[in-house]
């Protein structure tokens, strides 16, 4: 979860002055790791502070700003120390510097000295790249670490990296744009080999050498991109994203790499059991820059990380590359859910760019995209015995005709523009662990090519695509693909010549003309917007002026952002060359944070966007919409007052009831509420009747299309029974609880719950004092969960699974919830998952 301003406090202030210095500290063990975290010591007089900075653009930006500030000190105060009068108001809260133990081998380096060192290293870069791999390990480590230092700064030595530097101002962006347009004039293609591997290890520990998989090629590859799924299946890994198996498998990979080359780890990223490792030959590591990593969960409620993806993007020479390792939804019939997971991953993974004025990069905005993982697409419409017979005959062509992924790609539903090599190896799932025998369990899974590797981009040739049958650790077999990828390499002389020509041309064209654009439309209306259902319209911005222009949506007076929280413009800023156009997607999406005020009528779908041109005028875009109220995002007290489905009642009536319930002004004689919301009862009753024995309930996500049908059914009363699968209804229930503006246990009771979490009788006493509808809902839900636990032999649920899931929804902190509070809330709720004689049966808890 991201760290916000609420999570940090001001502990120490260190002015940047003549007595300020930065020291890079490292241990010898870290020297061979390109892309590792950078540790620096900040010194001011006798005070020292050691910082651990993550590799990537955030660190480069931070160190660049420190460097710039130190340079400003030298320029502005050449003869006297700055006074820093503005620090006076902070000195009362300063706690003093925390001196840290000095690290061995650290060298005091002023920021100016670091800059000089980089310039010196720049001249030696070409010599280092030609060094033999047989040089001493000490020298190689030192060179790699030097490159790491250089790549942690904005002062870059390679001309190809210059394109990735943050540039500010219209002129700089124009030069950058022209360089990209003329890229062919100063780059040439050079081939490099990429080993891609994917392995679902089924929660097992490494029991055998990985060399037959990782070192299967005759010559060592230049890159290794190795993905794992189901690294750890324990509940601890699922709930806390922590596992001891990460270093175990990382060590196994390191030992299994090709023995004829030396490699450095660039990046490791993991989400629960999905892990991606990125290694590169040491002698080409200097040309890697802009390394970023992102993760996204696509499990239940679109958040939980048992399914989802991890991704790494980087620049190599002048090519942008993105690698994705994903684990999509399981089970043969769930191909639509897998399609949805793929689209969610593409939409939600966004990489921050070095230039903060530029929008984030999505997966598809890279020159090369490499996608691997357990995609879980199955072989359908064939019986298991028929499939095994075709495998025995090596009739893989017939099998591929029934492969779900091939069919979905042919229909251009997913992986549009991607390529997969010909499959000439037998399916990699499912085997009895420790053998080459097909699944002999009671389920007897149909063999399938779950584990796949695909690519997207130009100048890519597949040299090999195979499974590795000798590895028997898991019920999957590992898969590898060896790709030869043409990388764009910068010719220094051609680059310099092109750059100078562009600058001269811009000098001739630059004048005092005011930028101007035309908009395809200035008024947009979004009809029948629904909870968690995306709508988008497009405005085309055309540069019809005489000069290039830079645009950005800007904040209106006294507003925190350029638009309301239910609206986004993508891209929100950018650069337009003369005569160019850009399509901006205006997207409306109502979620749990924005639905309550829209349901109650306190807010409307109305906003005005201000599109600002640098050195030009502002353009105004009007946004309106009609929102259909939903039980999702409405309060429990309001829903208990509604006798009819929320969309069957006049909007004014819904608003009046919402105001009454919020102010407790209802008349108990005329406005007698239901015991619990009928919408909640419909979902729980459906699960009680049909899903008590459903395996993986509340752990496997449902389909978004089915959720939308369930939502519409609850909001309109169009059906007597809920549509969709049990998993979709279960996820709808979780989303319903998550969207409540006031949780089942109201915010005002939260501190009391934390204080008495270990005392069962006090916990029950607190619940007995909740507002009536909140108490009814709490008792109804806990009775339902107790019923589920009675069928744990079939549904595989227990209190350690249900407890954290529902505790996090029923008890919500009014502020940031820390780990201690989460533990106490879980402990509080555990008291209610064990049935006592005072608990009423679920059948007695029905709405009137």
From TrEMBL:
<dbReference type="InterPro" id="IPR037793">
    <property type="entry name" value="OCRL1/INPP5B_INPP5c"/>
</dbReference>
<dbReference type="InterPro" id="IPR048869">
    <property type="entry name" value="OCRL-1_2_ASH"/>
</dbReference>
<dbReference type="InterPro" id="IPR047078">
    <property type="entry name" value="RhoGAP_OCRL1"/>
</dbReference>
<dbReference type="Pfam" id="PF22669">
    <property type="entry name" value="Exo_endo_phos2"/>
</dbReference>
<dbReference type="InterPro" id="IPR013783">
    <property type="entry name" value="Ig-like_fold"/>
</dbReference>
<dbReference type="InterPro" id="IPR046985">
    <property type="entry name" value="IP5"/>
</dbReference>
<dbReference type="GO" id="GO:0007165">
    <property type="term" value="P:signal transduction"/>
</dbReference>
<dbReference type="GO" id="GO:0046856">
    <property type="term" value="P:phosphatidylinositol dephosphorylation"/>
</dbReference>
<dbReference type="Pfam" id="PF16776">
    <property type="entry name" value="INPP5B_PH"/>
</dbReference>
<dbReference type="InterPro" id="IPR000300">
    <property type="entry name" value="IPPc"/>
</dbReference>
<dbReference type="GO" id="GO:0030670">
    <property type="term" value="C:phagocytic vesicle membrane"/>
</dbReference>
<dbReference type="GO" id="GO:0004439">
    <property type="term" value="F:phosphatidylinositol-4,5-bisphosphate 5-phosphatase activity"/>
</dbReference>
<keyword id="KW-0443">Lipid metabolism</keyword>
<dbReference type="GO" id="GO:0052658">
    <property type="term" value="F:inositol-1,4,5-trisphosphate 5-phosphatase activity"/>
</dbReference>
<keyword id="KW-0378">Hydrolase</keyword>
<feature type="compositionally biased region" description="Basic and acidic residues">
    <location>
        <begin position="115"/>
        <end position="144"/>
    </location>
</feature>
<dbReference type="InterPro" id="IPR031896">
    <property type="entry name" value="INPP5B_PH_dom"/>
</dbReference>
<dbReference type="GO" id="GO:0031901">
    <property type="term" value="C:early endosome membrane"/>
</dbReference>
<dbReference type="InterPro" id="IPR008936">
    <property type="entry name" value="Rho_GTPase_activation_prot"/>
</dbReference>
<comment type="similarity">
    <text>Belongs to the inositol 1,4,5-trisphosphate 5-phosphatase type II family.</text>
</comment>
<feature type="region of interest" description="Disordered">
    <location>
        <begin position="111"/>
        <end position="144"/>
    </location>
</feature>
<protein>
    <recommendedName>
        <fullName>phosphoinositide 5-phosphatase</fullName>
        <ecNumber>3.1.3.36</ecNumber>
    </recommendedName>
</protein>
<keyword id="KW-0967">Endosome</keyword>
<feature type="domain" description="Rho-GAP">
    <location>
        <begin position="657"/>
        <end position="841"/>
    </location>
</feature>
<dbReference type="Pfam" id="PF00620">
    <property type="entry name" value="RhoGAP"/>
</dbReference>
<dbReference type="Pfam" id="PF21310">
    <property type="entry name" value="OCRL-like_ASH"/>
</dbReference>
<keyword id="KW-0472">Membrane</keyword>
<dbReference type="GO" id="GO:0005829">
    <property type="term" value="C:cytosol"/>
</dbReference>
<dbReference type="InterPro" id="IPR000198">
    <property type="entry name" value="RhoGAP_dom"/>
</dbReference>
<keyword id="KW-0968">Cytoplasmic vesicle</keyword>
<dbReference type="InterPro" id="IPR036691">
    <property type="entry name" value="Endo/exonu/phosph_ase_sf"/>
</dbReference>
């Amino acid at each position: 979860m991201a760290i916000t301003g609420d999570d940090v406090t001001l502990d120490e202030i260190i002015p940047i002055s003549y007595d300020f210095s930065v020291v890079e500290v490292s241990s010898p063990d870290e020297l061979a790791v390109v892309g590792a975290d950078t540790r620096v010591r900040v010194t001011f007089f006798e005070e020292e502070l050691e910082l651990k900075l993550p590799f990537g653009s955030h660190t480069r930006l931070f160190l660049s700003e420190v460097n710039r500030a130190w340079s400003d000190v030298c320029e502005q105060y050449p003869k006297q120390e700055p006074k820093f009068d503005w620090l006076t108001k902070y000195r009362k809260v300063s706690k003093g510097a925390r001196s840290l133990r000095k690290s061995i081998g650290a060298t005091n380096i002023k920021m100016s000295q670091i800059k000089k060192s980089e310039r010196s290293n720049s001249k030696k870069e070409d010599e280092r790249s030609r060094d033999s791999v047989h040089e001493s390990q000490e020298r190689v480590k030192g060179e790699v670490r030097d490159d790491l230092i250089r790549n942690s700064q904005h002062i870059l030595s390679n001309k190809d990296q210059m394109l990735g530097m943050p540039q500010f101002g219209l002129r700089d962006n124009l030069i950058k744009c022209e360089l990209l347009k003329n890229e062919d004039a100063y780059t040439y293609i050079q081939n490099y080999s990429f080993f891609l591997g994917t392995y679902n290890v089924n929660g097992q520990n490494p029991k055998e050498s990985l060399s037959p998989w990782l070192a299967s090629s005759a010559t060592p590859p230049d890159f290794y991109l190795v993905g794992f799924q189901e690294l750890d299946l324990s509940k601890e890994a699922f709930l806390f994203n922590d596992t001891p198996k990460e270093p175990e498998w990382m060590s196994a990979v390191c030992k299994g790499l090709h023995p004829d080359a030396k490699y450095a780890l660039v990046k490791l990223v993991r989400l629960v059991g999905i892990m991606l490792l990125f290694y590169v030959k040491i002698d080409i590591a200097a040309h890697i820059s802009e390394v970023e990593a992102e993760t996204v969960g696509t499990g239940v409620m679109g958040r939980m990380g048992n399914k989802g993806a991890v991704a790494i993007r980087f620049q190599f020479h002048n090519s942008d590359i993105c690698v994705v390792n994903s684990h999509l939804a399981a089970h043969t019939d769930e191909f639509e859910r897998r399609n949805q997971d793929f689209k969610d991953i593409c939409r939600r993974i966004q990489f921050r760019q070095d230039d903060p004025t530029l929008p984030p990069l999505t997966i598809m905005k890279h020159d090369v995209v490499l996608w691997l993982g357990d995609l879980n697409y199955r072989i359908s419409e064939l019986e298991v015995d028929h499939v095994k017979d075709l495998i025995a005959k090596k009739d893989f062509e017939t099998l591929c005709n029934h492969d779900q992924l091939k069919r979905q790609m042919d229909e251009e539903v997913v992986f549009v523009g991607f390529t997969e090599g010909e499959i000439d190896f037998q399916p990699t799932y499912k085997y009895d662990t420790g053998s080459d025998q097909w699944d002999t369990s009671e389920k007897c899974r149909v063999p399938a090519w779950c584990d796949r590797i695909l690519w997207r981009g130009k100048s890519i040739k597949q040299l090999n695509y195979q499974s590795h049958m000798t590895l028997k650790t898991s019920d999957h077999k590992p898969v590898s693909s060896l790709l030869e990828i043409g990388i764009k390499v910068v010719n220094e002389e051609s680059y310099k010549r092109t750059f100078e020509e562009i600058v001269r041309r811009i000098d001739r064209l630059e004048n005092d003309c005011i930028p101007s654009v035309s908009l395809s439309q200035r008024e947009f209306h979004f009809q029948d917007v629904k909870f968690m259902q995306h709508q988008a319209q497009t405005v085309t911005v055309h540069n019809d002026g005489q000069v290039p222009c830079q645009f950005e949506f800007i904040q209106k007076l006294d507003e925190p952002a350029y638009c309301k929280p239910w609206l986004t413009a993508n891209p929100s800023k950018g650069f337009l060359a003369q005569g160019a156009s850009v399509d901006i997607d205006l997207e409306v999406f109502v979620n749990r944070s924005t639905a309550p005020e829209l349901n109650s009528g306190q807010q409307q779908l109305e906003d005005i966007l201000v599109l600002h041109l640098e050195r030009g005028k502002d353009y105004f875009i009007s946004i309106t919409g009609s929102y259909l109220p939903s039980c999702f995002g409405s309060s429990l007290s309001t829903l208990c007052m509604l006798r009819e489905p929320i969309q069957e009642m006049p909007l004014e009536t819904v608003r009046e009831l919402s105001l009454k319930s919020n102010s407790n002004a209802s008349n108990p004689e005329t406005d007698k509420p239901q015991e619990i919301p009928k919408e909640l009862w419909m979902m729980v009753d459906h699960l009680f009747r049909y899903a008590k024995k459903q395996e993986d309930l509340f752990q496997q996500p449902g389909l978004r299309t089915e959720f939308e049908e369930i939502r519409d059914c609850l909001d309109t009363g169009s059906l007597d029974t809920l549509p969709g699968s049990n998993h979709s209804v279960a996820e709808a229930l979780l989303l319903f609880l998550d969207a409540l503006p006031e949780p089942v246990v109201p915010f005002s009771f939260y501190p009391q719950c934390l204080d008495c979490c270990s005392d069962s009788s006090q916990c029950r006493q607190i619940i007995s004092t909740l507002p009536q509808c909140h108490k009814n809902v709490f008792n109804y839900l806990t009775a339902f969960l107790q019923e589920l636990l009675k069928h744990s032999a079939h549904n595989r649920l227990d209190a350690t699974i249900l407890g954290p899931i529902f505790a996090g929804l029923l008890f919500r902190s009014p502020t940031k919830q820390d780990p201690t509070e989460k533990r106490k809330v879980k402990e509080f709720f555990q008291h209610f998952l064990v049935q006592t004689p005072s608990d009423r049966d679920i059948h007695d808890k029905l709405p009137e």
